[in-house]
Amino acid sequence: MTINSVFLQLLTGLQLGAIYALIALGLTLIFGTLGVVNFAHGALYMLAAYCAVIIAGKMGFLAAIVLVPIMLFVVGIALERGLIRYFYNRPHVDQILVTFGLAIVVEEVVKWIFGANNIPFKLPAWGNGVAFLHEYIPFLEGFVVFPKWRLILVAVSLLTVFALFALLQFTRFGLIVRAGMREPEMLRFLGVDITKRFAIVFGLGALIAGIAGVFGGPITQVSPGVGMNLLVPSFLVVVIGGMGSLAGALIAALMLGMALAFTAEIASLQQIIIYLIAVVVLLGRPRGLLGKKGVME
Amino acid sequence: MTDHTGNNGWSRRRLLKASAAGTAGLGALALNGKAPFHFVRNAWAEEAIGNFPVKGKSVVFGFNVPQTGAYADEGADELRAYKLAVKHLNEGGGMLETLKPSSLSGQGVLGKKVDYVEGDTQTDPDAARTSARRMVERDGVIMYGGGSSSAVAIAQQYLAQEMGIVFMCGLTHSNDTTGKDKRRYGFRHFFNAYMSGKALGPILANEYGKDRRAFHLTADYTWGHTQYQSIKDFTEQQGWSTVDNIMTPLGTTDYSQFLTAVLNSDADVLVLNHYGKDMNNSLTQAVQFGMRDMQKNGKDMQVVVPLYSRLMAQGAGASNIDGVYGTTNWNWVLQDAGSQAFVKSFEAEYGFPPSQAAQTCYAQTLLYANACEVAGTFYPPEVIKALEGFEFEGMGPGKALYRAEDHQCFKDILVVQGKGPDKKSGEYDLLDIVSHVKRDDIIYPVDTFAGELGPYKPA
């Protein structure tokens, strides 16, 4: 292996991990705070991608970047108030069934309106083309290129992660939400309206799916099944990282991305590698890499 | 006099009637040695197979198409075509006017109205078998058809042979369907990967030169495997070399790790053995990786998609397919009488032109119905014999032959090139016909592929 190919594979692993992280982040946030296993998260991604391709086509890509996450935030709040809140105190199996059912309904409705065919999602002119990495990185030899859009996706993913960390660690809102995760009863005694915060957290999870849909859409393309396809690896990321752990999800996403990138040429291994990692990690550490003690153990 | 019915619902009178009828029936059997069938034509040879004999005033066809999964777009279009075929069989119109020789009347088949049931294969062999079995056992279909995905078609073909129900394949392009997995009860009108390779190889060499280095990305199932083999063989015959091949799982959404491997190699041609949404994703992402704008080995890098369809081209977008070579079974712009009759009636019904998947399913339904008329019966072995070696025209350009030895239909196919946004004249005008490849140029000896058809009567 040359230095060029190792570097390109590292970069591929990083950007694959970035997409998984972006979707897993919303999943794990909702589980960590609300204790809800949200199988409709893939459907939210798919909805975001459809909204993005339509808005980008009519009003330009920048409008999609601004509008789609806001729209998904509203959808998230409506979903929490209208459906999910009735399932907070029910077993995980009930939550999985209702959110999975919801995902199927959303998928079929979208298919009914837009058809099953793929809708081409063109990149905006400023994100199109490739970056000539050999011009910036001195140790690369010769000619090394990578799609600009994938680099943008990595940056967006990192920004989203930092913003979410900051929100939860350094704001009063974050403090209350974190306290609510530990002792919701006590918070209610102290006169804090924790229910309102929980609705906002679910909305935030949906908003992150919105960001993922806008930036991931031009890569994964826009078709009714796209959410389901991404849900499985993203869910694995959450489980390997430890249910509810943001940092764990990040590490797991990166692990899976790298594993996929470096096994690309060994088909038999490539197709099972992420499940293999899941098995090994969970055998050694049933709660996941950074999972809290007692959660899903 | 009244019947006195007991608690068990049987009166003495009814019991007497029933036993008298039973004795008479047994007596008739004892005299003839078999059930009295002498009022049915050709009855001496015809025993019950599958859902034969057909009872009632209608005959039921089963249409098992992917309504979900990676090939759902094709499935939806196939279903439209099937419904149109049933309409034409019952009321006339479409290719019924152009098929020659034809015994179809446009008033049903063998005096029975054609009815249909539909199923979802989910682009999955197991789901397809379950759905097909339900059609056979519950709905009593005499024939079933559908695709896409060769793995699904082959699974259904084996089931057809077991159950004695004729299976008219929809879109399936693997060499195995009429090669190592051919079955007496399965028939394929669609072309295959071998013909694609034979048609495409010389054109690629002519266009891109003879010293090219190809990297293949291949869908990891029967179709992908045989297409990779055929394209590899025919391009290597032209002097190309094959750098590498990576098998990718069906339904992959992100191909970046595989495309990185292509970038890392010294290949100057990327061959995408992908279909449907897989191709939409892999081609779009290859373009994003700059593979249609870069130079390798001092030559412009090229992308080839050996099996093309108009639906796929639509999903991938005109700017991505601009100039990309591939092959197709049929295209709606063809001007022969059969194609035009079909396109016009399809457009009148649905408002847009049909895909190649639709055309093959439509043709298959008519061909089966015609074979029943020719045989004068729905008895499967006779229908199969009527289809074997059937030569016809008026379903597309040129003459077509259903070869008896492997149940593969041979006819003209098309080498096409994607049309860019500035070249297309409408939403559905996406493929430019580069070459019209004649049947005689793509036909191959029967022993090219191993496999046995199996018996006329299911074991």
From TrEMBL, chain B:
GO biological process, one term: amino acid transport
Signal peptide: none
Domain of life: Bacteria
UniProt cross-references to Pfam families, sorted A to Z: Peripla_BP_6 (PF13458)
Family matches, as InterPro entries: BCAA_transport, Leu-bd, Peripla_BP_I, TAT_signal, TAT_signal_bac_arc
Gene3D superfamilies: 3.40.50.2300
Protein name (database record): Branched-chain amino acid ABC transporter substrate-binding protein
Organism listed in the record: Ferruginivarius sediminum
